[in-house]
Fold Peptidylprolyl isomerase.
Amino acid sequence: MKIKTTFFRNALLLAFGLISTLGFGQGQTGISVDKIIARVDNYYILRSELEELYQSYKAEGQRTPERCQLLESLIINKMLLAKAEIDSVTVEEGRVDEQLDGRMSYMIQRFGSEKNLMEAYGKSVNELKTELRQQVKDQAIVETMQQKIAGDVKITPNEVRKFFNTIPKDSLPYIPAEVEVGQIVRVAAVTQEQKEKLRNQLLDIKKKAENGEDFAVLAQIYSEDLGSAKNGGDLGFAKRGAMVPEFEGAALAMKPNEISNIVESQFGFHLIQLLETRGAEYHARHILLRPDYNRGTDVTEATRYLDSLHVLIKIDTLTFAEAAKNDSEDKLTADAGGLIMDPQTGLTRIPLDASMDPALYFALDSMKVGQISAPIAYRTEDGRSAMRILYYKSKSEGHTANLRDDYEKLSQIVLGNKKNNALEEWFKKAAGDVFISVDDEFQNCSIFGLSPKENQ
């Protein structure tokens, strides 16, 4: 099987770098979901999958590849899954859980809040996680296979230098000004007044249910979990460990049809009714009321806490990195010592340009390198009010790319090219181990350099 190298490398970039842009299968494209357009062993590709991937590029404002190229990337993805099955490659469920939580956090960030996300999809967060789980698991298997194939690939400084020297001097890219910025975040507390208000509202709802009103109807009227509300608050069967501990503990402490006391969790305040248990699973429904994070929170404690950390850092009793790791409530940056990473590169140097969060840009505009800010109002990725202190760690001015300042970026490119070469060699061999069939609808596509008839 002869493979077109350039086209194949582009497909590899799609498969490993961008396949994760797939969403939840909203089914909003109007394409029939039962149309199979390709098969790789026992794995099938639907036309709706191709359209979903195509639309995700357009929605992200990225350069949209041709559908043939996207189809090849999906086939590569299925090839990795098929070979993983043949080679008995698996992933731990804990890793799937972690990546699933990360995907959900990303989606909540894109939609501005958890409530906005649920309104957009008409489903609860737990329903979305259930739908997304297999996709995340498949992607974890793909990543494991990629690591197995190209994980041992290394590069040397000499290879980076040779690559840099092949770039014509008049074609060297301009690197914009970049900064390293750390943050320590503390979330605002829900006021006691609002907590009492929500508790009293739920107690009134509970009385209505105990007096004979249908819990499901009450959930449809009052619950702010919009995904489950339309189903009468029904969350379906859940395995132990799937829900937050407060919710699960209350649900499992009841008998079927019993209604809980008010339960507080990170999502708000719940009224829970257990419907039934089945082995290690339980079936419950709930009514959820959420705090108003715009008007019903108090930043006093968060500000006081950050002020104290600020003082300790300034007198060298504590480093910013230590404080971020131990005290920041932003999980995405805490483990990195508070440093904010560029989501595109995974590096801690982020461009100081229009792509930066405006609030961060204007905060840095009034700071000097090495300075730590006073507590600043902040909005978390899931829409909660918070406060943060910023550490302006470093700044590099805009410049033409060079080996000294941009070695890390250049080495990433060289390593990526070398891994792609290793993956390309693997695919040349693996393509003969699996059955690949492509629908005649895509007869003009050249999949791995072959026509559909040749692939069947």
User: Anything to note?
Assistant: Residues 192-289 form a domain with the Chitinase A; domain 3 fold (CATH 3.10.50.40).
